[in-house]
Amino acid sequence: MDLASLTIDAARSAVQERKTTALALAEAHYARIQKEDGQIGAFLTLSKERALEQADRMDRMAAEGKPLPPLGGVPVGIKDVMSTRGLRTTAGSKILENYVPPYDCTAVARMEAAGAVVLGKMNCDEFAMGSSNENSAYRPVRNPRDLTRVPGGSSGGSAAAVAADMAVVTLGSDTGGSIRQPASFCGIVGLMPTYGRVSRYGLIAFASSLDHIGPLAKTVKDAAIVLRTISGRDPMDATSADVPVPDYVAELEKPIRGMKLGVAKEYFGEGLDDEVRHAVEAAIDKLKAFGCEIVPVSLPHTPYAIPTYYLIATAEASANLARYDGVRYTVRARDVKTLSEMYRRSRNEGFGAEVKRRIMLGTYALSAGYYDAYYLKAQKVRTLLTRDFDEAFRKVDAIVTPTSPTAAFRLGEKSNDPLSMYLADIYTVTADLAGIPGISIPCGETKEKLPIGLQILGRHFDEGTILRVAHAFEQAT
Amino acid sequence: MKVTEKDVAYVAELSNLELTAEERSGMLRDLNSILEYIDCLNELDTSDVPPMAQVSDRYGVDKSKQGSERFAYASREDVIEGLRKSLPHTEALANAPDADEDFFRVPKVIER
Fold first, then answer.
1. Is A381 within 8 Å of B41 when comparing Cβ atoms?
2. Element (H, E) at A22
3. What is the ipTM of this complex?
4. Fewer Cβ atoms within 10 A, N terminus or C terminus of chain B?
5. Which residue of chain B comes nearest to A356, CA vs CA?
6. Which residues of A touch B73 (CB under 8 A)?
7. Tens digits of per-residue pLDDT, A62-113?
């Protein structure tokens, strides 16, 4: 079986038409994982029993001639920051090493209700904090396109698994670029929906006002199918929006001729690698040839996005991670005598260096005397960054940019310099702060055969438009 | 240097982290380098700009309504069994490093 070309529709119809079985598809993926994942490291936990049970359910439906749901029999992976009932969920952290959630994340429940077969949980940076997947407490993930390079982060396992054909699609999470940047590094499609489009219930919180769940896939259509499956109001998440979910798959076929696409010079400045620039400029030319109008726009506050992000995200993280105190979640330091010693030692032993750094920065930004200068200041600049997009989207339907300033870097290249690692997210964080949707699609390769990503940003709740542009581009390349 | 060794010790205490001497010196270096970069935010005059704490009150809501009225769809009656049944004790306590049948167990809180 050729797993490389296996899309959602191909897998589902093969099972539906009894050309194969969901069981055989799952087993073929497990065989591939067995063979490849030793060197890549995309999976943290396999859920074979759960997968085979679901596969069997789909096979029985197909045998009875019943129509399969949209993801019927499709093998998928779930980033290990999403809770799965009865299945270990670590968030890539030692502090949750043996944590077994008592409930399912809504997005996961919706995937399984649509027939998806969950193969296992995907490796990621600890608590989704990182841009290279080197912050996983278990092992780094390697880029399937070049094993000396990182797959990006924090959804590095989710991206690598799709790129190496170990899953048809995966779910990831994006707080500062964690779906789009690894999709770009691994040469696949990654979609961050609008804030509130997909319920966050059961997503282990990093920064609650910035966390998004979304798909990583081989094709734009697969991303659209998954988005249609997981979107929509969930009473368990008060921030999930009460906005109707369009048929994103039907949107793909609408023409893009006459559409206005914005290009912002702030995304093509210093620090952008020449090969990436050329590939993205060539992609923009191609979109123009399809009949799109290319319109210069200005997003003047862009240079302030990274500092704003690292204040807001860390402040929220410092509060969210206070719950890991040695009382409820499996890990407690040994031989502690007092309560405060238990808190401090459990946290110090359980958290990795980057998580501690962010807790410290966030706590500092929120502490008495610094709140106004840092946290409040960042919230105000967040308003300015959001207004930039409001203004630009008065003139254009979508904005096209590079996803990342460079192609995948080498393991260890940035791991000793937190600031240079943070700058890897320079083109992605602003969309998280403004809550707008963004997609990364492949748009070429460097001379060293490393994938380059094109990012398309859209208006709030207008995933339809960016999927349409992405699909048109993909069909022509 | 914005952050001093004393600040690092104080913030670690607020964060309930017990850092080693080596971790403290690394933290001092990293926090100062990051905060120095963050200082560029002061180039912006934000005196008339309202802070933005979240996205949800701006988009996908009925703009004719104000404040919490915008989120009326998300509210429900306050009842004992709401959207989901409460977890049974065995499940709620299953991940605890130390618990009896009803409670999480922790070291003594008040020393006498």
1. yes
2. helix A22-40
3. 0.93
4. C
5. B17
6. 233, 242
7. 999 999 999 999 999 999 999 999 999 999 999 999 999 999 999 999 999 9
- Rounded distance between C-alpha atoms, residue A343 and residue A333, angstroms: 8
Q: Which distant-in-sequence residues (6+ apart) come within 8 Å of A29 by Cβ?
A: A3, A75, A119, A166, A167
Chain B residues close to A99, C-beta within 8 Å: 95
CA dist A81 to A72, A105, A114, B6, Å? 24, 9, 21, 34
The CA-based dihedral angle spanning residues A398, A400, A403, A407, taken in that order and rounded to the nearest 10 degrees: 160
Q: Is A39 helix (H, G, I), strand (E, B) or coil?
A: helix
- Residue A386 with chain B: CB contacts under 8 Å: 52, 55, 58
Q: Read off the pTM.
A: 0.97
What's the one-letter identity of residue A340?
S
CA-nearest of A9, A363, A385 to B41 is A385
Q: How many angstroms separate the Cα of A452 from the Cα of each of A188, A426, A439?
A: 10, 15, 13
Is there a contact between B106 and A347 if contact means CB atoms under 8 Å apart? Answer: no
**Amino acid (1-letter code) at residue A10:** A
User: Hey, are the CB atoms on A363 and B14 less than 8 Å from each other?
Assistant: yes
Which of B14, B38, B104 comes nearest A327 by C-beta? B104
In DSSP terms, A438 is beta-bridged to A192, A457
Q: Using CB atoms, which residue from A338, A361, A434 is nearest to B31?
A: A361
CB contact under 8 A, A363 and B15: yes
Contact A360 B34 (CB under 8 A): no
Inform me whether the pLDDT recorded for B58 exceeds 90.
no
Ramachandran bin of A86, using left for φ above 0, alpha for ψ from -120 to 50, beta for the remaining angles: left
**Contacts with A344 from chain B: Cβ below 8 Å:** 16-18
Cα–Cα distance between A449 and A413 in angstroms, integer? 19
A9-26, pLDDT tens digit by residue? 999 999 999 999 999 999
- Predicted confidence band of residue A418 (pLDDT cuts 50, 70, 90): confident
